[in-house]
């Protein structure tokens, strides 16, 4: 019950915030530009919806979605990092880990909404492009796997934002993490590298085929990373003396 | 000079250099990975390949780097509620210029490191021909100019908005649009400052669809684009001075 209240408190903190700017605008740009690029290169991109999906997601998954999640997480911890709020948070009769977990749930639900928004934009773009074939059935699967991969990035970025008091620095780290997923993916270690799980799950570069690792392994690694982050956050908040300012 | 020293003192534990340095390391590793398998034809085109690749990497990474640097420099004042006090001891314009100079030094250092990486990779891999000094100089000047113009825009936003999510999101959007505009016709590219890394490219690429062979060739510098960036820089700077003077803290 206390945990539910903590989640509600996190929701209240987000009320009237400007986080919707990032949420609404950021997926629109790759959708518009990916569609435009698809239309420009229709003679090469002959695979209909699948080609359009690569145009929408290829750059987003590796560069921009990790950074968007970084922005969400930095924003969620900003309130704690200013106005001596850590002292208040840590003296509340609530286990500190509840704060991390409720943030993880809130930011993951934002990822769910982002994925739904990406899906809607994809369908709209396809219709506007005049794609007559039916919408790929795998779309739901790509988006769901994207939620799981996104949640892993959320867990890591929340840990980074918990430790680093700056808003911008964790965003920069998210950028480096996202870029790092390209060599990890090319070397065949995508499933081992947490930032690559998003692109791997969303089939950003191979939407027509199966996921490029076993599904149990994908789930197992995602859960391991989330688990490590939760343990880290627990230990950090338990052991580390807060510094508020 | 004293104001600049104070600016560096404020950020001495903020490790701004670390994020800039990390981005350059990532770019260097990316480039090393890209040149790992080069045949004789690739080595002939090695310098051109690097001068083509780095602006593309810059389009993705530098706007966000500039946003992070500007945010780190300005957020320190927001967090400490320092602007009201600071403006009583230093004119707004001077503080703005000092912060900009501080950020610009980081962005210039990043470009120097990039040139160093290109030259080092070229020497290690044995690119054919001597270092194209004129192209390197153009690359350095153009990249620094675009970097500092984007930094200026970001600094104006970071100083204006207390909530750093807004400038960071705008930086991210710019990076997004810049990257995608690389695939767009020339006319559209020129409307976005973030796409000028691509507009001021010194190398063109010709990809043969049938043979799948890529050939690079030097192009003459786009001086119109260069002056457009200078104009944007001057206009944004003038606008910044007016806005920060008028803004109530």
From TrEMBL, chain A:
Residues passing through the membrane, by range: 18-39, 59-79, 100-123, 143-164, 171-197, 217-237
Organism: Candidatus Galacturonatibacter soehngenii
Pfam families documented for this protein: ABC2_membrane_4
Alphabetically ordered keywords of this record: Membrane, Transmembrane, Transmembrane helix
Official protein name in the record: ABC transporter permease
Secretion signal span: none
Source species taxonomy: Bacteria, Bacillati, Bacillota, Clostridia, Lachnospirales
Automatic annotation (TrEMBL), chain B:
Signal peptide (residue range): none
Swiss-Prot/TrEMBL keywords: Membrane, Transmembrane, Transmembrane helix
Origin species: Candidatus Galacturonatibacter soehngenii
The keyword Transmembrane is annotated on this UniProt entry: yes
Superkingdom, taxonomy of origin: Bacteria
CDD domains attached to this UniProt entry: ABC-2_lan_permease-like
Sequence intervals crossing the membrane: 16-34, 54-74, 95-124, 136-153, 165-184, 223-244
Protein name per UniProt: ABC transporter permease
Keyword Metal-binding on entry: no
């Amino acid at each position: 019950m206390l945990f539910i209240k903590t989640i509600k408190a996190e929701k209240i903190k987000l009320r009237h915030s400007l986080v919707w700017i990032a949420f609404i605008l950021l997926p629109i740009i790759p959708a518009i530009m990916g569609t435009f690029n698809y239309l420009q290169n229709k003679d090469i991109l002959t695979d209909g919806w699948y080609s359009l999906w690569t145009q929408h997601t290829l750059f987003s998954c590796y560069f921009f979605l990790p950074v968007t999640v970084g922005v969400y997480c930095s924003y969620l911890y900003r309130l704690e990092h200013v106005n001596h709020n850590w002292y208040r948070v840590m003296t509340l009769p609530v286990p500190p880990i509840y704060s991390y977990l409720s943030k993880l749930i809130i930011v993951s639900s934002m990822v769910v909404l982002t994925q739904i928004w990406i899906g809607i934009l994809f369908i709209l773009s396809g219709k506007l492009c005049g794609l007559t074939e039916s919408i790929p059935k795998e779309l739901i699967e790509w988006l769901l796997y994207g939620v799981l991969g996104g949640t892993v990035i959320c867990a890591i970025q929340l840990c980074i934002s918990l430790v680093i008091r700056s808003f911008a620095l964790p965003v920069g780290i998210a950028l480096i993490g996202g870029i790092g997923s390209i060599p990890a993916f090319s070397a065949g270690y995508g499933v081992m590298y947490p930032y690559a799980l998003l692109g791997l799950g969303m089939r950003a570069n191979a939407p027509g085929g199966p996921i490029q690792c076993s599904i149990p392994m994908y789930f197992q690694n995602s859960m391991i990373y989330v688990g490590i982050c939760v343990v880290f956050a627990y230990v950090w908040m338990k052991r580390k003396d807060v510094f508020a300012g | 000079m004293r104001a600049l020293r104070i600016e560096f003192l404020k950020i001495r534990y903020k490790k701004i250099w670390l994020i800039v340095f990390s981005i350059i390391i990532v770019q260097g590793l990316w480039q090393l990975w890209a040149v790992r398998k080069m045949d004789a034809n690739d080595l002939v085109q090695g310098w051109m390949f690097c001068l083509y690749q780095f602006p593309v990497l810059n389009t993705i990474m530098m706007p966000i780097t500039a946003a992070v640097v500007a945010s780190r420099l300005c957020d320190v004042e927001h967090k400490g509620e320092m602007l009201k006090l600071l403006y009583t001891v230093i004119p707004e314009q001077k503080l703005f210029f000092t912060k900009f100079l501080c950020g610009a030094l980081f962005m210039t250092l990043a470009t120097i490191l990039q040139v160093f990486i290109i030259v080092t990779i070229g020497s290690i891999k044995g690119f054919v021909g001597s270092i194209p000094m004129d192209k390197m100089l153009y690359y350095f000047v153009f990249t620094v100019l675009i970097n500092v113009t984007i930094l200026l825009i970001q600094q104006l936003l970071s100083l204006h908005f207390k909530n750093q999510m807004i400038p960071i999101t705008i930086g991210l959007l710019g990076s997004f649009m810049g990257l995608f505009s690389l695939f767009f016709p020339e006319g559209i590219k020129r409307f976005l400052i973030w796409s000028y890394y691509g507009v001021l490219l010194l190398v063109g690429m010709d990809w043969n669809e049938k043979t799948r062979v890529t050939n690079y060739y030097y192009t003459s510098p786009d001086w119109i684009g260069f002056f457009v960036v200078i104009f944007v820089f001057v206009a944004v700077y003038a606008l910044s001075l007016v806005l920060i003077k008028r803004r109530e803290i």
